[in-house]
Design brief:
about 350 residues, alpha/beta, Rossmann fold, Hypothetical protein af1432, 2 domains, 5-stranded parallel beta sheet, 15 helices, 5 strands, elongated, binds fe (ii) ion, HD_GYP_dom, phosphoric diester hydrolase activity
Length: about 350
Protein backbone atom coordinates (compact mmCIF):
# COMPACT_ATOMS: atom_id res chain seq x y z
CA UNK A 1 0.00 0.00 0.00
CA UNK A 2 1.15 3.54 -0.76
CA UNK A 3 1.84 5.79 2.20
CA UNK A 4 0.25 9.00 0.97
CA UNK A 5 -3.16 9.84 -0.33
CA UNK A 6 -4.17 9.25 -3.96
CA UNK A 7 -6.47 12.05 -5.04
CA UNK A 8 -8.85 11.31 -7.88
CA UNK A 9 -10.24 14.58 -9.24
CA UNK A 10 -13.37 13.89 -11.20
CA UNK A 11 -16.23 15.84 -12.69
CA UNK A 12 -18.17 12.59 -13.06
CA UNK A 13 -17.97 10.68 -9.75
CA UNK A 14 -20.30 7.93 -11.01
CA UNK A 15 -18.10 7.38 -14.06
CA UNK A 16 -15.01 7.30 -11.82
CA UNK A 17 -16.39 4.87 -9.22
CA UNK A 18 -14.72 1.76 -10.67
CA UNK A 19 -11.43 3.61 -10.97
CA UNK A 20 -11.67 4.83 -7.35
CA UNK A 21 -12.17 1.20 -6.27
CA UNK A 22 -9.10 0.14 -8.27
CA UNK A 23 -6.95 2.91 -6.81
CA UNK A 24 -8.24 2.03 -3.35
CA UNK A 25 -6.57 -1.36 -3.67
CA UNK A 26 -3.11 0.22 -3.72
CA UNK A 27 -3.59 3.21 -1.41
CA UNK A 28 -6.04 5.46 0.37
CA UNK A 29 -8.03 7.14 -2.40
CA UNK A 30 -10.18 10.22 -2.10
CA UNK A 31 -12.47 11.31 -4.91
CA UNK A 32 -12.79 15.11 -5.06
CA UNK A 33 -14.55 17.55 -7.37
CA UNK A 34 -12.60 20.04 -9.48
CA UNK A 35 -13.60 22.73 -6.99
CA UNK A 36 -11.20 21.23 -4.45
CA UNK A 37 -8.97 23.51 -2.35
CA UNK A 38 -5.58 21.85 -2.73
CA UNK A 39 -4.09 23.41 0.38
CA UNK A 40 -6.63 21.48 2.45
CA UNK A 41 -5.25 18.11 1.32
CA UNK A 42 -2.00 17.20 3.08
CA UNK A 43 0.03 14.05 2.42
CA UNK A 44 -0.85 13.61 -1.24
CA UNK A 45 1.38 11.11 -3.06
CA UNK A 46 -0.28 11.19 -6.48
CA UNK A 47 -3.14 12.77 -8.39
CA UNK A 48 -5.30 11.23 -11.09
CA UNK A 49 -7.57 13.58 -13.03
CA UNK A 50 -10.71 12.52 -14.85
CA UNK A 51 -11.80 15.92 -16.11
CA UNK A 52 -13.16 17.42 -19.28
CA UNK A 53 -10.45 20.01 -19.91
CA UNK A 54 -12.76 22.12 -22.05
CA UNK A 55 -14.57 23.11 -18.83
CA UNK A 56 -13.36 26.24 -17.06
CA UNK A 57 -13.40 24.71 -13.57
CA UNK A 58 -11.14 21.87 -14.78
CA UNK A 59 -8.56 24.37 -16.01
CA UNK A 60 -8.78 26.40 -12.78
CA UNK A 61 -8.37 23.23 -10.73
CA UNK A 62 -5.24 22.08 -12.57
CA UNK A 63 -3.68 25.53 -12.57
CA UNK A 64 -4.21 25.73 -8.80
CA UNK A 65 -2.64 22.27 -8.44
CA UNK A 66 0.37 23.41 -10.45
CA UNK A 67 0.78 26.47 -8.24
CA UNK A 68 1.15 24.41 -5.09
CA UNK A 69 4.77 24.14 -3.97
CA UNK A 70 4.32 20.46 -3.23
CA UNK A 71 3.15 20.00 -6.79
CA UNK A 72 6.78 19.88 -7.93
CA UNK A 73 7.56 16.29 -8.82
CA UNK A 74 4.11 15.10 -7.77
CA UNK A 75 2.94 12.40 -10.19
CA UNK A 76 -0.17 13.62 -12.02
CA UNK A 77 -1.88 11.14 -14.31
CA UNK A 78 -4.37 12.78 -16.64
CA UNK A 79 -7.20 10.74 -18.16
CA UNK A 80 -7.75 12.46 -21.46
CA UNK A 81 -11.29 12.82 -22.81
CA UNK A 82 -9.95 13.69 -26.25
CA UNK A 83 -6.96 12.23 -28.08
CA UNK A 84 -6.08 15.19 -30.30
CA UNK A 85 -2.56 16.53 -30.29
CA UNK A 86 -3.88 19.79 -28.88
CA UNK A 87 -5.67 18.10 -25.99
CA UNK A 88 -2.55 16.16 -25.00
CA UNK A 89 -0.35 19.26 -25.25
CA UNK A 90 -2.84 21.10 -23.09
CA UNK A 91 -2.75 18.37 -20.44
CA UNK A 92 1.06 18.46 -20.41
CA UNK A 93 1.07 22.24 -20.10
CA UNK A 94 -1.24 21.88 -17.13
CA UNK A 95 1.30 19.67 -15.40
CA UNK A 96 0.30 16.11 -16.38
CA UNK A 97 3.23 13.70 -15.91
CA UNK A 98 1.48 11.18 -18.18
CA UNK A 99 -1.82 10.84 -20.04
CA UNK A 100 -4.06 7.86 -20.70
CA UNK A 101 -7.35 7.79 -22.57
CA UNK A 102 -10.37 8.17 -20.30
CA UNK A 103 -11.63 4.72 -21.30
CA UNK A 104 -8.44 3.05 -19.98
CA UNK A 105 -9.36 0.19 -17.68
CA UNK A 106 -8.81 0.76 -13.94
CA UNK A 107 -6.00 -1.82 -13.69
CA UNK A 108 -4.13 -0.05 -16.50
CA UNK A 109 -4.49 3.31 -14.76
CA UNK A 110 -3.29 1.80 -11.48
CA UNK A 111 -0.25 0.21 -13.16
CA UNK A 112 0.63 3.46 -14.94
CA UNK A 113 0.29 5.41 -11.69
CA UNK A 114 2.47 2.98 -9.75
CA UNK A 115 5.05 3.25 -12.53
CA UNK A 116 5.01 7.02 -12.20
CA UNK A 117 5.43 6.84 -8.44
CA UNK A 118 8.00 4.06 -8.44
CA UNK A 119 9.40 3.25 -11.88
CA UNK A 120 9.25 -0.53 -12.15
CA UNK A 121 12.44 -2.46 -12.41
CA UNK A 122 13.12 -3.28 -16.00
CA UNK A 123 11.37 -0.18 -17.26
CA UNK A 124 13.22 2.72 -18.83
CA UNK A 125 15.11 5.29 -16.80
CA UNK A 126 13.50 8.71 -16.31
CA UNK A 127 14.77 10.40 -19.46
CA UNK A 128 14.16 7.38 -21.67
CA UNK A 129 10.71 7.03 -20.15
CA UNK A 130 10.00 10.63 -21.02
CA UNK A 131 11.07 9.83 -24.58
CA UNK A 132 8.64 6.91 -24.61
CA UNK A 133 5.86 9.17 -23.35
CA UNK A 134 6.70 11.81 -25.97
CA UNK A 135 6.67 9.19 -28.73
CA UNK A 136 3.33 7.80 -27.49
CA UNK A 137 1.82 11.29 -27.24
CA UNK A 138 3.04 12.18 -30.76
CA UNK A 139 1.57 8.97 -32.14
CA UNK A 140 -1.67 9.54 -30.30
CA UNK A 141 -1.80 13.02 -31.86
CA UNK A 142 -1.14 11.57 -35.30
CA UNK A 143 -3.98 9.05 -34.97
CA UNK A 144 -6.21 11.80 -33.59
CA UNK A 145 -5.59 13.94 -36.68
CA UNK A 146 -6.11 10.93 -38.95
CA UNK A 147 -9.43 10.23 -37.25
CA UNK A 148 -10.65 13.78 -37.60
CA UNK A 149 -9.43 14.91 -41.02
CA UNK A 150 -9.24 13.73 -44.60
CA UNK A 151 -5.44 13.65 -44.74
CA UNK A 152 -2.50 13.86 -42.41
CA UNK A 153 0.90 15.46 -42.51
CA UNK A 154 3.38 12.62 -42.30
CA UNK A 155 5.99 14.99 -40.96
CA UNK A 156 4.14 14.68 -37.65
CA UNK A 157 5.46 11.14 -37.40
CA UNK A 158 8.95 12.57 -36.95
CA UNK A 159 7.80 13.62 -33.49
CA UNK A 160 7.86 9.90 -32.64
CA UNK A 161 11.04 8.81 -34.42
CA UNK A 162 13.67 10.74 -32.44
CA UNK A 163 12.26 10.04 -28.96
CA UNK A 164 11.89 6.36 -29.87
CA UNK A 165 15.46 6.02 -31.12
CA UNK A 166 16.80 7.92 -28.07
CA UNK A 167 14.84 5.71 -25.69
CA UNK A 168 16.15 2.58 -27.42
CA UNK A 169 19.70 3.91 -27.35
CA UNK A 170 19.47 4.75 -23.62
CA UNK A 171 17.44 1.80 -22.38
CA UNK A 172 17.56 -0.95 -25.02
CA UNK A 173 14.74 -2.85 -26.70
CA UNK A 174 13.62 -5.00 -23.75
CA UNK A 175 13.03 -1.93 -21.56
CA UNK A 176 11.31 -0.09 -24.39
CA UNK A 177 8.92 -3.01 -24.82
CA UNK A 178 8.27 -3.24 -21.05
CA UNK A 179 7.46 0.45 -20.89
CA UNK A 180 5.31 0.60 -23.98
CA UNK A 181 3.34 -2.49 -23.01
CA UNK A 182 2.02 -0.54 -20.00
CA UNK A 183 0.36 1.88 -22.45
CA UNK A 184 -3.34 1.31 -22.63
CA UNK A 185 -4.37 2.07 -26.19
CA UNK A 186 -3.80 -1.19 -28.03
CA UNK A 187 -3.22 0.41 -31.43
CA UNK A 188 -0.63 2.96 -30.27
CA UNK A 189 0.98 0.35 -28.07
CA UNK A 190 1.19 -2.08 -30.98
CA UNK A 191 2.62 0.55 -33.36
CA UNK A 192 5.28 1.59 -30.84
CA UNK A 193 6.21 -2.04 -30.18
CA UNK A 194 6.49 -2.76 -33.93
CA UNK A 195 8.58 0.40 -34.37
CA UNK A 196 10.94 -0.62 -31.53
CA UNK A 197 11.33 -4.09 -33.05
CA UNK A 198 11.91 -2.59 -36.50
CA UNK A 199 14.61 -0.26 -35.15
CA UNK A 200 16.37 -3.16 -33.41
CA UNK A 201 16.06 -5.38 -36.49
CA UNK A 202 17.45 -2.65 -38.76
CA UNK A 203 20.42 -2.04 -36.45
CA UNK A 204 21.15 -5.73 -36.21
CA UNK A 205 21.35 -6.20 -39.95
CA UNK A 206 23.40 -3.04 -40.37
CA UNK A 207 20.92 -0.78 -42.16
CA UNK A 208 22.33 2.69 -42.76
CA UNK A 209 20.73 5.30 -40.46
CA UNK A 210 18.46 6.77 -43.17
CA UNK A 211 17.04 3.36 -44.03
CA UNK A 212 16.61 2.51 -40.37
CA UNK A 213 14.61 5.68 -39.83
CA UNK A 214 12.48 4.93 -42.87
CA UNK A 215 11.65 1.47 -41.52
CA UNK A 216 10.77 2.99 -38.13
CA UNK A 217 8.52 5.60 -39.79
CA UNK A 218 6.78 2.87 -41.77
CA UNK A 219 6.31 0.84 -38.58
CA UNK A 220 4.85 3.78 -36.69
CA UNK A 221 2.17 4.41 -39.30
CA UNK A 222 1.63 0.90 -40.66
CA UNK A 223 -1.76 0.62 -38.93
CA UNK A 224 -2.79 4.29 -39.33
CA UNK A 225 -5.84 3.04 -41.29
CA UNK A 226 -7.20 1.71 -37.98
CA UNK A 227 -7.99 5.34 -37.14
CA UNK A 228 -10.83 4.89 -39.67
CA UNK A 229 -12.04 1.51 -38.42
CA UNK A 230 -15.07 1.73 -36.10
CA UNK A 231 -13.87 2.19 -32.53
CA UNK A 232 -16.18 -0.56 -31.27
CA UNK A 233 -14.10 -3.08 -33.25
CA UNK A 234 -10.81 -1.71 -31.96
CA UNK A 235 -12.07 -1.86 -28.38
CA UNK A 236 -13.92 -5.16 -28.64
CA UNK A 237 -13.07 -7.37 -25.68
CA UNK A 238 -12.99 -10.61 -27.61
CA UNK A 239 -12.02 -12.06 -30.98
CA UNK A 240 -13.65 -10.50 -34.05
CA UNK A 241 -16.26 -12.49 -35.97
CA UNK A 242 -15.71 -13.00 -39.69
CA UNK A 243 -17.68 -9.91 -40.71
CA UNK A 244 -15.85 -7.74 -38.21
CA UNK A 245 -12.51 -9.20 -39.27
CA UNK A 246 -13.30 -8.25 -42.88
CA UNK A 247 -13.95 -4.65 -41.78
CA UNK A 248 -10.73 -4.67 -39.77
CA UNK A 249 -8.79 -5.86 -42.82
CA UNK A 250 -9.80 -2.68 -44.66
CA UNK A 251 -7.34 -0.75 -42.46
CA UNK A 252 -4.59 -1.44 -45.01
CA UNK A 253 -6.38 0.29 -47.90
CA UNK A 254 -7.87 2.97 -45.63
CA UNK A 255 -4.38 3.83 -44.37
CA UNK A 256 -3.00 3.85 -47.91
CA UNK A 257 -5.73 6.25 -49.08
CA UNK A 258 -5.29 8.47 -46.05
CA UNK A 259 -1.56 8.81 -46.66
CA UNK A 260 -1.86 9.01 -50.47
CA UNK A 261 -3.98 12.14 -50.01
CA UNK A 262 -1.12 13.73 -48.08
CA UNK A 263 1.67 15.54 -49.86
CA UNK A 264 5.03 13.91 -50.63
CA UNK A 265 4.75 10.63 -48.82
CA UNK A 266 7.67 8.28 -49.27
CA UNK A 267 6.44 5.52 -51.66
CA UNK A 268 8.15 2.88 -49.47
CA UNK A 269 5.95 3.94 -46.56
CA UNK A 270 2.80 3.84 -48.70
CA UNK A 271 3.84 0.36 -49.82
CA UNK A 272 4.34 -0.75 -46.20
CA UNK A 273 1.00 0.65 -45.05
CA UNK A 274 -0.91 -1.07 -47.84
CA UNK A 275 0.95 -4.36 -47.95
CA UNK A 276 2.13 -5.29 -44.47
CA UNK A 277 -0.43 -8.15 -44.35
CA UNK A 278 0.62 -9.63 -47.71
CA UNK A 279 2.24 -13.09 -47.58
CA UNK A 280 4.90 -14.46 -49.91
CA UNK A 281 2.62 -17.33 -51.00
CA UNK A 282 -0.14 -14.91 -52.06
CA UNK A 283 -2.43 -15.73 -49.14
CA UNK A 284 -2.36 -12.24 -47.63
CA UNK A 285 -4.38 -9.08 -48.23
CA UNK A 286 -5.48 -6.66 -49.61
CA UNK A 287 -3.97 -7.35 -53.06
CA UNK A 288 -2.91 -10.99 -52.76
CA UNK A 289 0.64 -10.09 -53.76
CA UNK A 290 3.22 -12.85 -53.82
CA UNK A 291 6.98 -13.40 -54.12
CA UNK A 292 8.99 -10.59 -55.62
CA UNK A 293 6.00 -8.26 -55.72
CA UNK A 294 6.53 -7.84 -51.98
CA UNK A 295 9.38 -5.46 -51.19
CA UNK A 296 12.06 -6.07 -48.57
CA UNK A 297 10.79 -3.20 -46.40
CA UNK A 298 7.38 -4.85 -46.31
CA UNK A 299 8.91 -8.27 -45.57
CA UNK A 300 10.86 -6.82 -42.63
CA UNK A 301 7.83 -5.02 -41.31
CA UNK A 302 5.54 -8.03 -41.59
CA UNK A 303 7.87 -10.08 -39.41
CA UNK A 304 7.97 -7.34 -36.73
CA UNK A 305 4.18 -6.99 -36.97
CA UNK A 306 3.45 -10.71 -36.57
CA UNK A 307 5.91 -11.04 -33.67
CA UNK A 308 4.40 -7.98 -31.94
CA UNK A 309 0.84 -9.30 -32.33
CA UNK A 310 1.78 -12.73 -30.95
CA UNK A 311 3.58 -11.31 -27.91
CA UNK A 312 0.80 -8.86 -27.06
CA UNK A 313 -1.75 -9.74 -24.39
CA UNK A 314 -5.39 -9.19 -25.24
CA UNK A 315 -8.45 -9.71 -23.08
CA UNK A 316 -9.19 -12.84 -25.12
CA UNK A 317 -5.67 -14.26 -25.48
CA UNK A 318 -2.53 -14.48 -23.35
CA UNK A 319 0.77 -13.10 -24.61
CA UNK A 320 3.13 -15.64 -26.17
CA UNK A 321 6.71 -15.74 -24.94
CA UNK A 322 9.39 -14.51 -27.32
CA UNK A 323 10.54 -18.10 -27.96
CA UNK A 324 7.00 -19.25 -28.79
CA UNK A 325 6.43 -16.31 -31.14
CA UNK A 326 9.70 -16.99 -32.95
CA UNK A 327 8.71 -20.62 -33.29
CA UNK A 328 5.43 -19.56 -34.93
CA UNK A 329 7.34 -17.27 -37.31
CA UNK A 330 9.75 -20.09 -38.22
CA UNK A 331 6.70 -22.24 -38.94
CA UNK A 332 5.41 -19.66 -41.41
CA UNK A 333 8.06 -20.39 -44.04
CA UNK A 334 6.61 -19.90 -47.47
CA UNK A 335 4.58 -17.00 -46.12
CA UNK A 336 7.34 -14.86 -44.57
CA UNK A 337 10.98 -14.60 -45.60
CA UNK A 338 12.92 -17.33 -43.67
CA UNK A 339 16.29 -15.53 -43.90
CA UNK A 340 14.77 -12.45 -42.33
CA UNK A 341 13.03 -14.50 -39.64
CA UNK A 342 16.39 -16.02 -38.75
CA UNK A 343 18.04 -12.57 -38.56
CA UNK A 344 15.09 -11.17 -36.63
CA UNK A 345 15.37 -13.97 -34.04
CA UNK A 346 19.04 -13.08 -33.53
CA UNK A 347 18.21 -9.37 -33.26
CA UNK A 348 15.59 -10.03 -30.58
CA UNK A 349 17.83 -12.48 -28.70
CA UNK A 350 20.68 -9.97 -28.77
CA UNK A 351 18.40 -7.39 -27.16
CA UNK A 352 17.79 -9.76 -24.23
FE1 LIG B 1 -2.08 -4.08 -39.77
FE1 LIG C 1 0.04 -4.13 -37.14
Amino acid sequence: MLDGLIVLVSDGPKRSAALADGLGLVGRCEVVSPDIRWDKLPGVSAVVTDLDLTRANAMTCLLALQRQAWGAGLPILCLSHRSSDRALRQARMLGASACLPVYAEPHVVVTALLNLINPAEGSLNASARQCAERAAAALEGLFGVAEASRFIDLQAVDGCVDPLLSALRDGGLARWLNTIRAHDNATYQHSLVVAGLAAQFASHIGFPEAQRQRLVRAALVHDIGKSRVPRRLLLKRGPLDSEEAAVMRTHTVLGFKLLSASATVDPAILDAVRHHHEMLDGSGYPDGLSGDAISDVVRFLTICDVYAALTERRSYKPAMSSAEALQVLHGMSGRVEPRFVHAFGKAVAQAG
